[in-house]
Amino acid sequence: MSYIEQTLTKLQKSSPGQPEFYQAVQEVLESLEPLFAKEKKYLEHNIIERIIEPERQIMFRVAWIDDQGKVQVNKGYRIEFNSAIGPYKGGLRFHPSVSSGIIKFLGFEQIFKNSLTGLAIGGGKGGSDFDPKGKSNNEIMRFCQSFINELYRHIGPTTDVPAGDIGVGGREIGYMFGQYKRLTGRYEGVFTGKKIPWGGSLARTEATGYGTVYFAQNMLTTNGQALEGKTCVVSGAGNVAIYTIEKLYQNCALPVTCSDSRGFIYHKSGINLETLKQLKEVESACLSKYAEIHTDAVYTPVSSYPAGRNAVWSVPCDLAFPCATQNELNQADAHELLKNGCILVAEGANMPSTPEAVEAFLNAKIMYAPGKAANAGGVATSQLEMAQNASMIQWSFEEVDVRLKTIMKNIYLTASETANEFGQPHNLVLGANIAGFRKVADAMIDQGVV
Ligand SMILES: NC(=O)C1=CN([C@@H]2O[C@H](COP(=O)(O)OP(=O)(O)OC[C@H]3O[C@@H](n4cnc5c(N)ncnc54)[C@H](OP(=O)(O)O)[C@@H]3O)[C@@H](O)[C@H]2O)C=CC1
Ligand SMILES: O=C(O)CCC(=O)C(=O)O
């Protein structure tokens, strides 16, 4: 049995029932093989077994009262995965599919993503199986307050700094920040993704989507191409998708799709960003309403997708931006994108492509940017928010955006130079994993066995 197989077998025994976590670990371990062949120190210090075990896992009950006066109970999680290069940093996800395996996969990815930003942030993630859909504002507030009644004792501006993710935006961060402040009496940068008047950073809302497009731009430029005139397929209709679409328009590309958990929109003349923002950021409406407003757009409900497929990826395009959720693009979807002439895939979401889809992209040698590199602009800008909070200043939108652009360029260069160093120039999966890992692993060695 190879070292990787042994590690995965052991992991499955010690942490049963966490398929997404095994998937994330397997991908990283496979990428690291050429590094281990070259540098023995990582195996000698048993870094692998140490890095796949979270430093701390917090699981707690979140009891809250709904609008009918009934007591509801959800599970809360915070996985403090690795603090070798900085305080734990990563979002909170509120979605019914959340489990400890999902949070562990996200926290594990966050270690390498945060390392790639070049900033001093460790990896963490958290969330709850609470479903914000259909809940009133007061229910959301009561849930957030109860969530923080437990979590507040584990977080702090130099220990663990949560932010948003699926189902958690400025409103939820506000309720959690308010409760933290009430319990501790401290006004400090313990969350990022805050609204601007109470400590948020300009451009944080836009950062993940904008950063993903900046990353794509770097890949295109290196390959003698440009965004201008490219037809783009985007999945998702949340924070990341919306600002990916906005930045594509700013660069004269044409985004023609968006999707939510119930279906997708194909608008051949281009997604209307104003309508999308109104429906999703203001009304939290279903995307079917988009086709009622724009009658030349086509809405396809999930029930009409071919079995086992995500129909968004069957729309012909030059560039694809998966921005919804994990494993939303499988091998058949990847082959269809390739058949239709797609030349670039940049992941705004975390681990949206299955391992087989990733393999198809790498084999076809198209430009492929894994999420932990392409979507790192969100967490990087969160660190800029922490820096502004700590020094009690606020930078302008342009100042933050310029820094974001530079960070995304550096992540691209780091991943591609590392891929070159290991003789696989087009393989940014390998480049991102090795570069992200090396910095954290070296710090762990320096800091001894802890
Ligand atoms: N926000 C950030 O700064 C960052 C986010 N990410 C990643 O980006 C992705 C999107 O996050 P974000 O935009 O913030 O989240 P949002 O909650 O704002 O939006 C998520 C979008 O994805 C859709 N979606 C969620 N789950 C599913 C599903 N199972 N099937 C189909 N569609 C689904 C949602 O549809 P519906 O509205 O119907 O629920 C919604 O349109 C996630 O993978 C997240 O981890 C990565 C880096 C940073
Ligand atoms: O901004 C952050 O701290 C985290 C963003 C996030 O959750 C992610 O990068 O997946």
The largest β sheet comes out as:
5 strands, mixed
Secondary-structure arrangement, i.e. CATH architecture of the largest domain? 3-Layer(aba) Sandwich
| Structural class by secondary-structure content | alpha/beta
| CATH-defined topology of the largest domain | Rossmann fold
> What's the helical proportion of residues?
40-55%
| CATH C-level class of the largest domain | Alpha Beta
Question: What is the fourth-level CATH superfamily of the largest domain?
Answer: Leucine Dehydrogenase, chain A, domain 1
Oligomeric state of shown chains: single chain
Binned strand content? 5-15%
Whole-number average pLDDT? 98
Bound molecules: NADPH dihydro-nicotinamide-adenine-dinucleotide phosphate, 2-oxoglutaric acid
Bulk shape: globular
Contiguous uncertain segments of 5+ residues: none
Along the chain, the helix and strand elements come as: HHHHEEEHEHEHHEHEEEHHEEHEHEHHHH
What is the terminal-to-terminal distance?
28 Å
What spatial order of strands do you see in the largest sheet? 1-2-4-3-5
Would you count the extended β strands for me?
Answer: 13
* Number of H/I helices: 17
Q: Structurally, how many domains make up the residues?
A: 2
Q: Radius of gyration over alpha carbons? A: 21 Å
